[in-house]
Amino acid sequence: MVWWLACASAPGVGGDAAGEVVFEADDTAAASADTASDRDTASGDDTGTWSPALTDFDLRRAGGHDVVVQQDTVSAGGCSFDLVRYSPTSPIAQVVLSHGFLRAPDHMADLAGHLASWGLEVVTPQLCHSSLWDADHEANGVELAALADELGFTAPVFMGHSAGGVASVVAASEGSASAVVTLDLVEFESLAASRGAGLSVPVWGAFGESSSCNADTSGLDAVSASGGLALRVVGADHCDFEGPTDSLCTLFCEGSSAFSDSEISELIRALATAAVIDVGGLGDAATWWSAGSWYEQLRAEGRLEAL
Question: By the number of CB atoms within 10 A of the CB, which of 32, 156, 199, 254 ranks highest?
């Protein structure tokens, strides 16, 4: 469940000061997630292997953590960030989740709430250079690294959609990071590829179908340069990687698919969640990304393609 404790509704998130439930956690997943992510009771050994692995569960469904959602303003690196915090009980990893060009934190609310329901602490900042009159993806990345430091995050996962993916790669190259997850990254003058080539942390890239909106999967070179792993979510368009989306995106970028928008969005959220859970030490991203049971099932169903 996600609870909203501020006086006004968070962008893209329902709720009020009375603590209205705005995301419902699945009961079965809730029991699994709460048990597996409790480091005091979960079965483990000195190698950091925990049982059951969270990535064995269906990550397309909501996890079991209660989540508090709060707005905040934090200054770092010369940027005054308006941001939304998603704070679960017993967080296992930290995520800085960035929106795309001309977008906002509310467009990442669905993914942020889902990640937090699986025990991942998430912040969604409003980037300071994401407008028609001020588009500086490198500065966004440098400032994101400063924001993570200001928040006291130790080696967070930097995750971002479209141009937010470029900023996330830059942020990881600037500061301390444990991984990068890009969501239909759109490259800008080879910035992500050049910064990604020097990264020593895992990089995962999920892409939609090639189109003008993702510059014909231009971000693939950046993931490849970093030695990362890339997948195509079959039938996904650029708007499927944010949520809730709006007519500004769908007017230009909405595609068609044999799979429903909800099925595609759920799979994208599962891939992102698996990558961060891997970093948190409670699962193996390969289960969903490259060689595991979920990956093989989804490939057999025609929902995923390796790139």
Answer: 156
